[in-house]
Design goal:
The complex is a heterodimer of chains A (328) and B (94). Chain A is mainly α. Chain A has one domain: Up-down Bundle (Ferritin). Helices cover 65% and strands 2% of the residues of chain A. In chain A, strands 1-2 form a two-stranded antiparallel ribbon. In chain A, helix 4 packs antiparallel against helix 7. Chain A is globular and about 65 Å long. The two termini of chain A are 42 Å apart. Chain B has one domain: Ubiquitin-like (UB roll), CATH 3.10.20. The longest helix of chain B has 12 residues. By secondary structure, chain B is α+β, with helices and mostly antiparallel strands. Chain B has a three-stranded antiparallel β-sheet with strand order 2-1-3, covered by helices on one side. In chain B, strand 1 and strand 2 form a beta hairpin. The chains are: A mainly alpha (328), B alpha+beta (94). At the A-B interface, helix 4, helix 5, helix 7 and helix 13 of A face strand 2 and helix 1 of B. The structure holds fe (ii) ion (2 copies). The site of one fe (ii) ion (FE2) has 5 residues of chain A, from helix 4. Chain B: This is 1,2-phenylacetyl-CoA epoxidase subunit B.
Chain lengths: 328, 94
């Protein structure tokens, strides 16, 4: 999902030290782990990777939507989109702060994003071609994000859990404003309805990819689930997402682009086609339609902002030297 | 890389007269900007009417390994709780 394919580093139960056994016991009793408490190095590293990737996804995720702010069809829509994109910036900041409690700095994380060493969600490497995509992104992408973030509110690491609680409070507005756009488009002119269908066609499978590879290929899940930094398997969440979303598409009068989609009475859920996993790995490798553009925009924003960050530091220093009492 | 802005802890007091509560942290070059950032990051939906910020380096915290010695002394003082005392029902609410 926002953190796909996070490599987890753990020790098998037999090789655990007494400290690690006690730590796992705390997690099993649903105790929260707080920043300065003892934790296995693997737990710390895996969390930095996961929270960092999640933060990067929030920040890079602003780009495909930011793309439409100046072209929103009405002033009200523009305000809404602006507020949503601003929320995503906030989500990124909450998460960077959570990661920082693990002993890594925000600048360091950003550097690792910019160098390509750290990833963000594959979904943001797809283009947003029409206004209907703003609807589909809110509905499907934020919808998939919510699916993953709601259980993470119960994650074992205190600062991560608290960031998730804040984020979840703000997400439902995101999904609802997206669905409201879809309703408008789906009930609009034939051309508008066609745009809505086209957005669903293009974003359906990339949204399913957000949950990460199929469980049978998901190598790092077991350790992360034992540590409660992953609460459900990828396939569980993907199934839940499909079951929730298909009726919403039907309500819009749109067709999910999957000829094999059908209700399975026995399992109480839909059978559906998996996304093209080769495409998924290609996008992760950097070969998606917008990888270069997205990362390029990030690096440019960071570099173009350097003079401002430096100026603010210089100004703060000067002010502090003028008023030594108020300074520190 | 240029010098990183220092980290600040943010405390917000909500509408209803409760204490300021820690809500998270952020980076800012000085206190004034920290308050502005705190407004943007932590009060986008009327969460507060007052903001405190303090540089994270100035927070002194109890150490997790002291949890026992620090908090155990209050564990066995059950008489500090109202339920310790049996008051007859006739007395009514007390
Ligand atoms: Fe978000
Ligand atoms: Fe969102």
């Amino acid at each position: 999902m926002y953190a796909q394919l996070v490599k987890s580093e753990g020790t098998s139960r037999e090789d655990m030290s007494p400290e690690e056994i006690a730590f796992q016991g705390r997690i099993d009793r649903n105790e929260k782990i707080e920043p300065k408490e003892w934790m296995p190095e693997g737990y710390r590293k895996t969390l930095i990777r996961q929270i960092g990737q999640h933060a990067h996804s929030e920040i890079v995720g602003q780009l495909p939507e930011g793309n439409w702010i100046t072209r929103a069809p009405t002033l009200e829509r523009k305000q809404i989109l602006l507020a949503k994109v601003q929320d995503e910036a906030g989500h990124g900041l909450y998460l960077y702060c959570a990661a920082e409690t693990l002993g890594v700095s925000r600048d360091e994380l950003l550097e690792r994003l910019h160098s390509g060493d750290m990833k963000y969600s594959s979904i943001f490497n797809y283009p947003t071609l029409t206004w209907a995509d703003m609807g589909a992104v809110g509905w499907l992408v934020d919808g998939a994000a919510i699916m993953n973030q709601v259980p993470l509110q119960r994650t074992s690491y205190g600062p991560y859990s608290r960031a998730m609680i804040r984020i979840c409070k703000e997400e439902s507005f995101h999904q609802r404003q997206g669905y409201a756009i879809m309703m408008k488009m789906a009930n609009g002119t034939p051309a508008q309805k066609k745009m809505a269908q086209d957005a669903l066609n293009r974003l359906w499978y990339p949204s399913l990819m957000m949950f990460g590879p199929s469980d049978k290929d998901s190598v790092h899940s077991a350790q992360s689930m034992a540590w409660k930094i992953k609460m459900n398997t990828n396939d569980e969440l993907r199934q839940k997402f499909v079951d929730q979303t298909v009726p919403q598409a039907e309500y819009l009068g749109l067709t999910v682009p999957d000829p094999d989609l059908k209700w399975n009475e026995e399992k109480g859920g839909y059978d559906f086609s998996e996304p093209d996993w080769d495409e998924f790995y290609q996008v992760l490798k950097g070969n998606g339609p917008c990888n270069k553009e997205r990362l390029g925009a990030r690096v440019k924003a960071w570099e173009d902002g350097a003079w401002y960050r430096d100026a603010m530091v210089a100004h703060a220093k000067k002010k502090a030297s003028r008023r030594p009492v108020a300074a520190e | 890389m240029s010098s990183e802005w220092p980290l600040w802890e943010v405390f917000i007091r909500g509408q209803h007269g409760l204490n300021h509560r820690h809500v998270g942290s952020l980076h800012a070059p000085d206190a004034e900007v920290a308050i502005k950032h705190a407004r943007d990051v932590y009060t986008r939906r009327n969460e507060g009417v007052s903001i405190w910020v303090v540089k994270s380096v100035y927070i002194a915290a109890s150490s997790p390994s002291d949890k026992g010695p620090l908090f155990e002394p209050s564990n066995d003082k059950v008489y500090r709780h109202p339920t310790f005392y049996d008051i007859p029902d006739e007395i009514g609410h007390m």
